[in-house]
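[job 0417] fold request received: CRISPR-associated protein
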Amino acid sequence: MKEMKVRLEFFEEVLGTASSDPEIHEKYIASNAPDAPSRKEEVEALGAEEVFEKSMTVFPRLDDGTPFLWDYQIKGFFKDSCGMLRKVKGTPSSAIKAYKKEIDGLIFVKERQIPFLFEGEIGICQRPLRASTAQGERIALSSSETVPAGSAIEFTIQCMVDSDMAAVIEWLDYGDLRGIGQWRNSGKGRFKWRDITDSQKNKK
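[job 0417] inference complete; emitting structure tokens
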């Protein structure tokens, strides 16, 4: 198994994806996966983007209040990136056929909870949300918690197939263009990254 420790440094703020209203999770999101092994985790994995905004989206918190990302949110970013980059001929991603199964079964994030490293306060991002409904166009105000630009996260990527690491590096590079979290199509959650494997080994 090939392993790499990375540090992501966000140059755009990151928006939370979990609904702050437990009833939304239960009625609208968890119902999409009633047979999930862990409904709570499946709810988090699906996120609130599939639901018309009814409340603020937030970050999960450690016991000390630090916001964090779940490991599967990183894997979700990998799937999103691979789904796009596999359309580019000659890329490592284009060589992965059943890419979602490959990421689920052969590529792992070692840490379960990945805390944000940042100074300052958690902010709020508000933006208009438009949706086409049977009653016509609707516009609502969407709100999300944010961690500021300059924040960072660190985690370890494990690949059971060594050649997959080239694709992982490609996905991390793609984070410069398309980031993590809600409203990423607007540029939120974009980041630079670096390999800190050796520096971590030297600390031991």
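[job 0417] notes: The radius of gyration is 17 Å. The mean pLDDT is 83.
[job 0417] exit 0
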